[in-house]
Amino acid sequence: MARLLLVEDDETIGGALARSLTLHGHEVVWSQDGGAAVREGARASFDLVLLDLGLPDLDGIAVCRELRPALPDAVIVMLTARDEEMDVVLGLESGADDYLVKPVRLGELHARVRAHLRRAEAGGHQPPTELGDLVLDFASRRVTVNGGELHLRPREYDLLARLAANPGVAVSRDVLIAEVWDENWFGSTKTLDVHVASIRRQLAAAGSVRMPTIVTLRGHGYRLDPPA
């Protein structure tokens, strides 16, 4: 059982999602506006957040920016009726890990929730991996550079960990989407590119010389090259 924060102002949609998630064994806290969601995130911990972008008080992207530092280890999944790519990109850059387009299909929702929660629990028995000054501790899901921690979002960590599992080996976009997000992914692969860009910014900001490099392989995917 996981603890979920559902942020949805529509009574019909929110009620249906809350009932369905509860029947699947999760504890659900339902907030019907952005302000209430921010307060819930500040006072309690959650494993996963389902966040509607079209809220009546605060914009969902603003709520996401507030929730991310308050819930650094939670997976944030946006619920959006907006089909423009820029809205999705803004949401991902504000701290979200994934998105679902309304009307939400319950089967896909539950599959996506299970996949995210399963990946959040994985990695506890793997030894740490060192790539130059970068260290990935799978048991604690921490990434450090010379002892200082990088505060990666859950899917950013999963993506970096997947690439770090085989340094110097090319990994296709399809494999990364399937293993880091969902093998039945229906959304835009722009999600992958946004997360890679964010990881690159954080690795560069760490200011270390002995760092791995994420290489773009056009038409294929990505590769993590260890430092020379």
From TrEMBL:
Residues annotated to bind DNA: 126-226
Identify the residues that the record assigns to the OmpR/PhoB-type domain, covering every copy. 126-226
4-aspartylphosphate PTM sites in chain numbering:
52
Concerning PROSITE patterns, the annotation shows: OMPR_PHOB, RESPONSE_REGULATORY
Q: Which residues form a coiled coil?
A: none
Domain Response regulatory positions: 3-117
* Keyword annotations: DNA-binding, Phosphoprotein, Two-component regulatory system
Query: Pfam families from the xrefs?
Result: Response_reg, Trans_reg_C
Give the matching PANTHER family. PHOSPHATE REGULON TRANSCRIPTIONAL REGULATORY PROTEIN PHOB (PTHR48111:SF40), REGULATOR OF RPOS (PTHR48111)
Query: What's the protein name?
Result: Response regulator transcription factor
Which species is this record about? Answer: Pseudonocardia benzenivorans
